Amino acid sequence: MSDEVPNIPMTDVPVTEVPVPEEEAWFSTLDLLILSMLAGFAVYWLFFKNKKQEQPVFKKLVVQPMAGKIDDPSFINKMKNSKRNVIVFYGSQTGTAEEFAGRLAKDSIMYGMKGMVADPEECELYELSRLSEIDNALALFCMATYGEGDPTDNAQDFYEWLQSGDTDLSGVKFAVFALGNKTYEHYNAMGKYVDKRLEELAAHVCLNLEWVMMTLSNIEEDFVNWREKFWPAVCEHFGVEATGDQGSVRQYSVTINEDIPKEKIYTGEIARLGSFINQKLPYDAKNPYLAPVRVNRELHKGGDRSCLHIEFDITGSKIRYEAGDHVAVYPVNESEIVEGIGKRLEVDLDTIFTLTNVDEEANKKHPFPCPCSYRTALSHYLDVTNPPRVLLLKEMVEYAREEKDKEFLAKMTASTAEGKQLYNDWIIKDHRNILAVLEDLPSLKPAIDHLCELLPKLQARYYSISSSP
Ligand SMILES: Cc1cc2nc3c(=O)[nH]c(=O)nc-3n(C[C@H](O)[C@H](O)[C@H](O)COP(=O)(O)OP(=O)(O)OC[C@H]3O[C@@H](n4cnc5c(N)ncnc54)[C@H](O)[C@@H]3O)c2cc1C
Ligand SMILES: Cc1cc2nc3c(=O)[nH]c(=O)nc-3n(C[C@H](O)[C@H](O)[C@H](O)COP(=O)(O)O)c2cc1C
């Protein structure tokens, strides 16, 4: 994360009523991890009432400000109109389940099927009972668990519907991929619940759910292993055959916006365009309040530990909070990494572009706020510091200009024991980020817009509020 003084001063935010003394307003001793993380330029308030302090549940913050309006809310109609027979629902807070859902939808092409991704929050789930109206139809659920075995925010209504509903789902084929972490008491609770409940409602499971252990380093490996068993099971069930590798299928198309007025270009805003200049009530998780830092004080004197006392100014925001609620810090990637990627790919990072979903039926029109510059996307919206996933590297193979780099990438992303070992050694153990990959494989020159499509979204960092109002 960037250690630099943010480029957009908080004091520019018009809601500031208390002037921020310079020596207190900015982070001055950014020598430890937590400190450097807090150097992100945007601090947003989140306020969630009645949450337990030890198990805070946070609200989804990544919103799609440009998402188009939903004309026909019926996902069954959408599937019929676009001749799709696979629907992949995701319950996701920080994007992993959503990313895997996208991958499963893409996979379906390899089996002569056609998939679409769906946010359960935007669907009338009682329509599931109509899924059997479509030939060889399949519903997949990638469900993450949070809190004390709770669903994600976007799966809350689905969860309630499952609990209360008595819909007859006979004839509906489904499978669940549960995302969780074994260190939690209620491991994979949501995935397990969905699996059990759908079967109770008479739906037919296509692949018995396997409880997978998720850790930070092997979450993708678990997913890859699961789908290796899953698709053959689907083939067997429906009597279909794999049609071969689908190659690279783009989910978004790029448009270069040459003559777009400045005020229409996102500059790092997480939600509303222009919110750095002008914030508008009411504030909530989808329109977070950018709070100026009023006091920033190191509590530890000496030693190598750091603990900050930070006060935010929420004057005029009408926000109420209590101890145990939390704030979100939006980090900004280091400019050296961003510039490094631009240099390696030989692109002008000031180019303004828009990525638009090629699937006209999709509710999510853009992967992150667009239009913006490549620099903004790589600095504010995309994670360029974590090791890239196998799924991303696999799509990079075609961009390697030298045969040896192509072979190396293909070997590393193959689902063989050797490939997995190579990925673990070269990517995970060495903690190679995308820039390091590009530097170490100089012939690799992916299209920057494709890279922007594939990189995971940069996540907010949450911090519990320790003081009462
Ligand atoms: C609801 C909630 C409340 C929370 N409250 C608090 C709280 O009050 N206090 C608190 O301390 N935490 C709290 N947390 C946890 C905190 O949000 C996370 O720990 C946060 O992600 C830490 O952010 P970070 O940027 O420091 O670390 P990370 O998010 O882990 O980011 C570290 C970065 O460094 C990179 N990196 C790691 N290793 C290497 C390497 N070897 N070489 C190069 N780069 C590397 C990674 O790729 C990554 O980009 C809370 C979390 C939640 C969900
Ligand atoms: C605050 C928090 C609470 C979590 N609670 C649980 C839990 O109760 N059970 C579980 O199996 N996993 C739990 N997890 C792990 C997540 O389910 C897991 O990281 C998952 O991959 C996240 O998917 P997502 O990125 O799609 O939101 C928790 C993670 C966080 C950050």
Automatic annotation (TrEMBL):
One GO term describing the cellular component: cytosol
Residue intervals of the Flavodoxin-like domain: 86-231
Domain of life: Eukaryota
BP GO terms, sorted: response to hormone
Assigned keywords, A-Z: FAD, Flavoprotein, FMN, Membrane, NADP, Oxidoreductase, Transmembrane, Transmembrane helix
Cofactor: FAD; FMN
Record flagged with keyword Membrane: yes
Membrane-spanning residues: 25-47
GO MF term set: flavin adenine dinucleotide binding; FMN binding; NADPH-hemoprotein reductase activity
Enzyme Commission number, as recorded: 1.6.2.4
Annotated ranges, domain FAD-binding FR-type: 286-469
Statement: the UniProt record of this protein carries the keyword Acetylation: no
Broadest EC class assigned to this enzyme: oxidoreductase
Source lineage: Eukaryota, Metazoa, Spiralia, Lophotrochozoa, Mollusca
Range of residues in the leader sequence: none
The organism of origin for this protein: Mytilus edulis
Record Pfam families: FAD_binding_1, Flavodoxin_1
Listed name of the protein: POR
